[in-house]
Amino acid sequence: MNAYRYFTMHLPYLNSPEFLSFALHIMTCLEVPVHLFGAYCIIFKTPATMKSVKFSMLNLHFWSVFLDLTISLLTGPYVLFPALVGRSLGILKFFGVSTPIQLYLIVTLFPTVGVSITAILENRYYLLFARDTLWKFFRIPFLGSLYLASFSCFLPCYFSIPDQKEAMKEVLEKTPALLEYASNADLFVLSVDFHLFFFTLVIMIALVTGTSVTFARLLHRNMKERSQQMNVSNQTIQLQKIFFRAIFIQTSMPICILIFPLNYLVFSMYSGYFNQAVNNLCFIVTAFHGLLSTTIMIIVHKPYRDVFYDTFCERIHRILRPGSRMTYSLSTVSKTTG
Predict the structure, then answer these.
(1) Assign residue 323 a region: left if phi > 0, alpha if psi is -120 to 50, beta otherwise?
(2) Cα radius of gyration (the chain)
(3) So which domain of life are we looking at (predicted)?
(4) Which of 38, 71, 70 shows the shortest CA–CA distance to 57?
(5) What are the C-alpha distances in Å from 247 to residues 139, 216, 261?
């Protein structure tokens, strides 16, 4: 009861752009040092055994960081789902960047991150199993077309932006709950009909998910066949399996975080349900995606985990406990006196 009373008392603040802006600024402060450390690990601490995947990992890291900072710092989207109405709270607004351009940036970055995940899996598949096949002639045009689709998927919505005055009037007729927010002159209406936006989103999600799953299955099947041919004793195959599992964890867990915002988006649009506190929460969760991705990357890849241990854990331990030595594994941390 007390929790419910506390929530209802603070609901107006949770609905507000001030709450969203404050939360996203906190996220930015957390993200920047973690992302910089992740980039440092990839660029300077990737071992020779991972050299073939270095560019793909850096590419995914770049787009994930770009998406994170676009949401939490550059645009700060305050969107009033189920209506495609909102405004920017980010720094691009103060540099005079138009709202449609900011929307274009956000919408295109989501599938671009997905394509970058596909690129990592395709890179592994090509280097391990397809160097001497016809795929080597098609892989670059294939990946290029995926990136092109990501960058252009929002164009139909962008070129069909309605007259703002008439569109706002129609939106308020459909969703009267938005009336208390309509006094803000900065509100921008992307569309009065969500179907074009929604189906564009569904097509891109299906395309990116389908290609990623396809290469993941190809990798898994070929590794299994090769390990059976070599009686599961080949060390190289075992190392590739470990690396594949690490990549799978790195890419799949952050995607799971996005399931909640996407499901709520679908539910809100088709039911007409409006709850601005949940809308704000969805963008906070989405902004958490890249931070989680970078953190998991550092944890699951042993070379980067070792760098983190040497840079932070061991130095802090030496300061707190001089004369002792710290040893660790992924699952446990133990101390032994030197």
Answers:
(1) left
(2) 23
(3) Eukaryota
(4) 38
(5) 20, 10, 23
The CA distances from residue 89 to 64, 74, 95, 326, in Å, are 20, 8, 12, 45
Cβ atoms 181, 138 nearer than 8 A = no
Record the tokens describing residue 124, joined without a space.
């592994």
Domains and CATH numbers, the chain: 13-309 (1.20.1070.10)
Reference 308, options 65, 47, 60, 41; nearest CA is 41
Q: 244: closest CA among 113, 122, 112?
A: 122
- Interhelix angle for 195-229 vs 259-271, to 10°? 150
Taking alpha carbons only, the member of 330, 309, 302 closest to residue 46 is: 302
Rounded to whole angstroms, the Cα distance separating 106 from 282 reads 14
Mean pLDDT to the nearest integer, 202-218: 90
Phi-psi region of 32 (alpha: psi -120 to 50; beta: other; left: phi over 0): alpha
Residue type at 88 in one-letter notation? S
Q: Residues near 160 by Cβ (< 8 Å), separated by ≥ 6?
A: 191, 196
pLDDT tens per residue, range 91-106 = 999 898 999 999 999 9
